[in-house]
## 1
Amino acid sequence: MKIFLTGANGQLGREINKQFQENYQLILLDRQTLDITDFKSVETMVKDIKPDIVINAAAFTKVEEAEDHPEKAYQVNTIGAQNLAIVCKRNLAKLVHLSTDYVFDGTKAEPYDEFDPSYPLSVYGKSKLWGEKLVEQAGGNHFILRTSWLYGEGNNFVRTMLGLADQRDTISVVADQYGTPTYTKDLVWVIERLMQTDFYGIYHASNKGSTTWFEFAKTIFALSGKSIVVKPLVTDNYPLKAVRPKYAVLDNKLLKLRGLDIMRPWEEALKDYIDSTSAHTK
Ligand SMILES: NC(=O)c1ccc[n+]([C@@H]2O[C@H](COP(=O)([O-])OP(=O)(O)OC[C@H]3O[C@@H](n4cnc5c(N)ncnc54)[C@H](OP(=O)(O)O)[C@@H]3O)[C@@H](O)[C@H]2O)c1
């Protein structure tokens, strides 16, 4: 099976490479090799390579920067996604596209499932939602996986916290935003299961359970044996340009209904990640 992977240098891209390189013919495309905003290049490459599956791990993920430069976010997350979807349809390739919990406004008191309406609060969230819509409108065979609070190989909250623990005694972390940390390893397990099927559509794909950034930070330090004082912070006292949903917990309802929800509880996945990270740094 031939798989065409965009955004191969990102967190998710690197994990897909790690897990798929043995069993699949993987064509790795970073931003330098293929800019997904360039329709002609996308079309030429897909036509030449004739992949069975295209996985779009490319995205503009700088949530704050997107507020100042919305066109950058819309070019990559909306137009880039549409380019891939059109070309996949023309070339009969399946498309696996990634989206986010930030398509929701966070006003619901219980986990969001795939049937809930989306009202994004930030430019990033809007650009991802419109990416989803245009992928759907292109009319090809596609899976859209919405995930949340992703960590893996690359810059992420876990690495930032571990770095800060070596520099500081005290840290303040937002304690009134709820979500679910998700390990790229688990997300790739789901992608692999889903991409073998014809069960196209939108799926929520997060690790199980929920927490706040504050509790997440405390768990990172506990699991890694770092001693640092973590203080709770209220979002309103830590103003950022992009408004984040207060409650963005995802319910993997469709994966559950399909018997494909193989996600672990977030604490278990985090322990696995921290154990493997410290094994690498020993
Ligand atoms: N990170 C999270 O917490 C999170 C949460 C929910 C959903 N998601 C979604 O999950 C997916 C994977 O996220 P991630 O954390 O792996 O993102 P990431 O680490 O930021 O990786 C994204 C990759 O896309 C590349 N890219 C940017 N613009 C491109 C373009 N025009 N053409 C081709 N490649 C381009 C980036 O390259 P450069 O570095 O060179 O720009 C980067 O390597 C994304 O769809 C994201 O929206 C992420």
## 2
Amino acid sequence: MPYLTTLEPLETDQWFVESPELSEFVATAKEIIASTRDDYTETLNTLEPYFAALLKKQHWLPENFAQPNPDSGLGGGIGQWLLYRSQERNLTIFSLVIPPNSTTPVHDHLSWGLVGLYKGQQEETVYRRLDNAETEGFADLEVVGSYHVKRGDIYRLSPPDGDIHSVKATTVFAPSISIHVMSNDTGSILRNQYHPEQRSSKSFRSGYSNLPYRN
Ligand SMILES: [Fe+2]
């Protein structure tokens, strides 16, 4: 698919959380990605049940990866904590921690992915691009739909039409936490934020809350 990152490979796989559950999932995901390389829909179909099983286990995510972040690259105090990324940056797993009533910007990911709710509730609003993306800074979006997402639910990201969204935490007292399984190094690449009312876009790099900016 045409949305691969052009970042250099890392020196090695990077682990930020020690967890047998996460290690087992990563090993399985790597096997699935390798055996379904030509068909990412098959990758997602095969991977999803294993991801659902990981989400059901509620003790493997350390507390410091379940916190908001006042210096968020996404704004709104949203924590984006890197849990694992592969040497080739073709498998990245991070938690996204959205404080109550906070909302992400409208953004894309430029990668297939699975997003699963680990804790709390969210409302996801999905957008579709109507223009041909050839004019710098211009983007004409329409809303495809809004979806209530609760603990254990999984949704897919798939460019180009299923890749642009915003996410609001609808939990009142505690942050909502989603786990992202992505096929690029989402926090490190340049991607896009959108202002649908102004029909504008700008590139940005979200970074990760537990890594130096732009690392
Ligand atoms: Fe997102």
